[in-house]
Amino acid sequence: MTGTSSRDTAPVGGPAARRSDASRSAILAAARERFATDGYERATIRAIARDAHIDPSMVMRYFGNKDGLFAAAVTLDLRMPDLSEVPRTEIGYALVGHFLALWDENAELTAVLRVGVTNAAGAERLQGIFRDQVVPVAQRVCPDPEQVQTRAGLCAAQLMGLALTRYVLRLPPVVALGRPEILAWLGPTVQRYLTAPSP
């Protein structure tokens, strides 16, 4: 008969697991507060660890780096509009207008986009936001249910491309565009992706 170690017999969800969960929760709570107060660029792993009363190495162990921590800590609600009262021919304009307002007032969204293009965890977070919040909007208006994912993806490409060039890369010609111009250029494109017959 072979012996068993305490590791073999330790129950799942025992004291060590509970300590681990508590540590992760403390780190995430501290990170949300620190990111909200200092912004992404100025928040540091060391400051977040100090706020959570945890060694900085533990933050790195659980989340890898600041990008991974930010992606795990920040939950974003795109506050997608109710399109039931919007005329079908104006849905594209309504979505572009909504996202313009959202990008302008929500620095966290820009930070998530910046993290998403450089970090796997951030990319997963953006994919989750797309899946849970953008796809359902497309489902309600697309003429062909089997193409919902494709059409929603094309809309996201336009909207995220605008955000990347306007708010992250800050390309001067895009930054210089006023809201009416952006609506005039992008509204018909997003409208076509959502409601036009399949090519």
Written description of the protein model:
By secondary structure, the protein is mostly helical. It has 2 domains: 11-73, Homeodomain-like (Arc Repressor Mutant, subunit A), CATH 1.10.10; 88-195, Tetracycline Repressor, domain 2 (Orthogonal Bundle), CATH 1.10.357. It has helices at 6-9, 15-42, 45-52, 56-63, 66-73, 91-105, 107-116, 120-141, 148-168, 172-175, 179-195. The longest helix is centred in the N-terminal third of the chain and has 28 residues, at 15-42. It is elongated and about 55 Å long. Residues 1-10 have low confidence and may be disordered.
Descriptive tags:
199 residues; mainly alpha; disordered N terminus; elongated; 2 domains; Tetracycline Repressor, domain 2; Arc Repressor Mutant, subunit A
